[in-house]
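Duplicate of #3305? Posting structure anyway:
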């Protein structure tokens, strides 16, 4: 049996008819950018997150940059961020000229260790940027409390966690401002580049909408130095269709995760805190025999991935920050032992049980 890590083609084919109908409608109108399809998508995604405002932007990285810019975070400021995230989270901080203060995750939940945050706060700290890694909400209630107490902004990187929640509140609504990505491989994937920002703060929303569109307050009136970080209307249209059907996707991913957890023994999973939920963008397992297991599964036609093999502090791009290679032992440990099993919502149960069988064969020779 051959099992792809994620079959994007099979996934999107399920939406073909809907896409085609929308496309016909789309080409018969004279939409340029930021028109009716965008406001319609923004309404939908703000309701999905239980927030008042949403802005569609060009991708997840630009969304993160706009979150920081709208809060006037820049040179001279420090931002606390997880040591074990996808590099985009770090890059956004670098691009606004602020200083990255990495903090380690918990070894079991793989999300930010809130107990370490206060040790890293200085007079220059402005924000904590939290990534809800692998689709699982971090303990945002605890982190939010620490931010309130220390007068810091909480910024959410929800690129992997659309719809996940902590204490019943969606990840997209915990931060003063929150970013997400609709990269095609994400849980809600566009047909190309896209991202969004959610907030309950009207001033931040106005600022983000201005910054994404050349700093314009009205046509040909530029209030500040902005960007062109707009999302295409066609992506907005497709995303709206996917959001309508998203709960089914999450339900199936949760079902697959449950089958894995019930049938794999002696393996470390990402610990899910009691009041948090996951939308399983990724299903990580941790094992000291990661490379051997990956090869074994590959030989049986099963494709797996590693998220991520090199943590940001070890990347050449960040050599100038002069972190020691062993500065973040937990991030290093995760990079050395993490393996992502396929959790494609359109996998059949037969495929899931085949993967389980081959993993058990690796450990127990069954
Ligand atoms: C994918 C991702 C991003 C960046 O999103 P793009 O749309 O690719 O720019 C940011 N943060 C995390 C955690 C991600 O997984």
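Output from current build:
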């Amino acid at each position: 049996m051959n099992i792809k890590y994620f079959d994007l083609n099979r996934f999107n084919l399920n939406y073909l008819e809907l896409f085609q109908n929308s496309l016909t409608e789309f080409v018969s109108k004279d939409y340029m950018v930021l028109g009716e399809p965008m406001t319609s998508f923004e309404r939908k995604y703000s309701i999905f997150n239980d927030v008042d405002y949403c802005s569609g932007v060009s991708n997840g990285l630009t969304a993160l940059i706009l979150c920081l810019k709208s809060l006037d975070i820049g040179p001279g400021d420090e931002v606390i961020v997880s040591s074990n995230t996808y590099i985009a989270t770090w890059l956004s901080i670098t691009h606004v000229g602020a200083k990255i203060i990495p903090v380690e995750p918990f070894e079991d939940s793989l999300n930010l260790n809130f107990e370490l945050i206060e040790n890293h706060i200085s007079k220059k700290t402005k924000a904590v940027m939290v990534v809800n890694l692998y689709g699982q909400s971090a303990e945002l209630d605890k982190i939010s409390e620490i931010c309130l107490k220390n007068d810091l902004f909480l910024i959410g990187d929800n690129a992997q966690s659309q719809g996940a929640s902590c204490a019943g509140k969606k990840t997209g609504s915990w931060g003063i401002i929150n970013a997400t990505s609709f990269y095609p491989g994400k849980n809600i994937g566009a047909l190309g580049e896209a991202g969004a920002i959610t907030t309950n703060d009207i001033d931040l929303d106005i600022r983000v909408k201005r910054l994404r569109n050349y700093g314009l307050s009205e046509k040909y009136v530029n209030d500040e130095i902005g960007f062109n970080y707009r999302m295409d209307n066609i992506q907005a249209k497709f995303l709206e269709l996917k959001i309508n059907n998203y709960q089914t996707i999450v339900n199936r991913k949760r079902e697959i995760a449950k089958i894995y957890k019930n049938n794999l023994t002696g393996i470390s999973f990402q610990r899910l805190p009691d009041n948090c939920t996951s939308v399983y963008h990724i299903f990580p397992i941790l094992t000291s025999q990661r490379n051997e297991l990956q090869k074994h599964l590959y030989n049986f036609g099963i494709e797996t991935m590693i998220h991520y093999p090199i943590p940001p502090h070890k990347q050449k791009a960040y050599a100038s920050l002069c972190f020691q290679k062993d500065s973040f032992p937990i991030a290093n440990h995760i990079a050395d032992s993490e393996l992502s099993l396929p959790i494609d919502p359109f996998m059949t149960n037969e495929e899931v049980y085949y993967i389980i069988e081959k993993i058990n064969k690796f450990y127990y020779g069954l």
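Confirmed duplicate; merging threads. Residues 246-263 form the longest helix (18 residues). The chain has a mean pLDDT of 97.
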